[in-house]
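Section 3.1: Structural characterization of target chains.
Under the original work plan, the team committed to producing a structural model for every single-chain target entering the pipeline before any wet-lab resources were allocated. The record below documents one such target. The sequence was received from the expression subgroup and is listed exactly as submitted; it comprises 570 residues.
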Amino acid sequence: MKRGRRINQDPLFSSAGELANFVVTSNLIDYDLAKNFEFQRGQTAFPCSVQRMVYHPTPNRTIVVFIPSPDSTQYPLPEGGDLVPSPEFKFLCTKECPSVSINRPALTLFSSLHDHLSGLKAQLTEREGQLIITGHSLGGSVASLFTLYLLDSMDKKGKCRPICITFGSPLIGNFDLQHSQWNSFFLHVVSNKDPVPGLFLQSFHSQTTVYMPFGTYLFCSELGCACFDNPDLILKLLTVISSEVAGGLLQVVDYGEILRNLKNKAIWKGPQLAGERFADPFSTGIIMKLETIGFDQTKLLQHNIDIRRMEAEARSLTKKTKAYDAKKLNDIKKYMAQLEWYKKKSKDAKKGYYDCFKSGEFVRDIKVGEYIGRITTYWEDVVAEAQWKPQTEGASFRTRWLFSGTTYRRMVEPLEIAAFYGNGKTDYINNGRSQHYKLLQQWYEEDAKPPSRDQLDSRKEKVSALLTEDSCFWAYVEEAILSCESLKNANSSPEQRASSWNNLVMFGEYVMEQIENYAVSPEIFLKESSFMKWWGEYEDYIDTKRNFYSSRLVNFMKRRSYEQYGRRAI
């Protein structure tokens, strides 16, 4: 599952209200509505139920419109609410939702446009500026799927920041983005006269619905509008609207007129009042917001919608989550401090913490294993969450997490390697390395630049306190030891010996590059370290078998320059 968010995909808006207010009060809505609805007027039939149009109203703005045929607007997705697995959207899977299913008709339409959308995706990932993806009714379903498809592919090279705005569109799947920053890229506009957005909830009236809303929902009425991002509340509101609207699917809702009126009201009341109207439910009366869209106290009681209970549960969950996260982070800091202490004690023993842990001679080595397990579980969860948040591989993640993640990787992964080879296994890089280590390294390298002379001088002064930068260094050492054993093994074939020698030559070049960049800790030169063990075997081999072989590392080690490593220029 690919997940590298290389563009700066921080949450576009800090709250549901901010996103809704922006869309209603900005000129964006003029372009969006005009392009969305003008092509539906006068159309009688399409070769396909959904057409796509791309516009560039300004050099820095791109609008992609998915236009449904008139029939599909009034009778969307006639096959009903069937959900089917979709390998194409497997990237939406989480631990809580291991299998993603999409509405069958929506997925069928999206798949029918796949070839065209693949080419469009390639074009959009190269553009810069603002990207709006929009659609009405069935077109909105396809617009949402395309936005998700685009977000996943924009990981590596996307430059646009997409906003998906749908109008009167049905729910499309069973997945939940409420804990992902992708959530902030979607705004779904729903009229209290439109049954279509809650269409499929009626199919599951007698059971818990498998459909899940995501993004911000802007509910509109003649009185005004209110926005929500609580998925439980959204489901209830959609269900009630769909069941109560007279005329069912035959009623046509003019979203253009609704939102133009709302925009005029927002501009007339001024930005301060508009901001209050779209404020977060925790800071304003959520019941007052519901009354704005036609849900008074009587209707709330009639449909058993307990707003106070929902708000209390949401508040409680938020508080518990924050408290739990703070305690967990504090525990991780304590465990890391214990590893620092362990590293110091191992250095005093002239062995290094890698080899101390590998040998497992003391009770403290077992205790360290417990710390590693807890720290690693924490960081696996952090990385798994990061994979779902566009922010996490952009600037925000690098600022908030990547420094700590790099320190963790450089401190803990060597101990994982020690346990791996201590159990008699080989080829850690291909057979043992966890995916979360690979991702942490990948994200670090995306921002890393070759060190300048000033940086090298700074490293030189601090090298005695630094962690080895390549967290896989000890895996290369272990493989080098195995190569030495292969050279000395009488049963090794000529091909095996040649391969082992080539591996040792490359390893020597790699190590010397690390040394010259002050990228390895002086601990590798401790008398009892595995690296010095390797050097002893390697030196013995070249002295007896390859008397005239020389390299920068061989010269460095034979001159014992490592004894001064970090204290003077090499």
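The two ends are 44 Å apart (CA to CA).
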